[in-house]
Design goal:
single chain; N-utilizing Substance Protein B Homolog, Chain A
Length: about 170
């Protein structure tokens, strides 16, 4: 029998929403984005095999693949946004698992408007609890909240510009 993704034999890592295909998709995406980061993208062609081996829930496989591919395509842009709000932290000082978690969440904040930002942030905090240090959830929450505020401000600014164009 296969163990659920993200468990190390204990139920500690298996929070109550793990049966939700979207939560499972995020968990799988984080794990594969981490692998991609370690291997510098050299294993991108193994995405289908990874998902097939680690996920029996077909409803989670396609969303996970979309998250992985979307995030990986925009990785430099995502890193720039993370750098912009983490002024006291050089990106290389952020642990790789936290960087990957932040990248995934920032991608969702930008590219998945159907998912409420609070859900994205809460899921990233849950992933930090499962895969990182005791300090990581608060760190991830703070960075993502700052990015969300920045993205909201950019949206407000661009809608103001568009409204001004319409009135000219």
């Amino acid at each position: 029998m296969k163990r659920p993704v993200g468990t190390s034999g204990s139920s500690k890592h298996h929070h109550n929403r793990s049966g939700d295909p979207r939560s499972l998709a995020r968990r799988l995406a984080l794990q594969f984005i981490y692998q991609l980061s370690v291997q510098r993208g050299g294993n991108l062609d193994q995405i289908d095999g990874f998902l097939g081996e680690n996920c029996e829930n077909s409803q989670a496989q396609q969303p996970a693949k979309q998250l992985i591919l979307g995030c990986w395509r925009k990785i430099n842009e995502l890193d720039q946004l993370i750098k912009a709000v983490s002024s006291n932290w050089d990106l290389s000082r952020i642990s790789l698992v936290d960087r990957c978690n932040l990248r995934l969440a920032v991608y969702q904040l930008q590219a998945c408007p159907e998912v409420p930002p609070r859900v994205v942030i809460n899921e990233a905090v849950e992933l930090a609890k499962s895969f990182s240090t005791a300090q990581a959830p608060a760190f991830v929450n703070g960075i993502l909240d700052a990015i969300w505020q920045k993205l909201k401000q950019q949206d407000d600014d661009s809608s103001d510009v568009n409204e001004n164009k319409d009135s000219l």
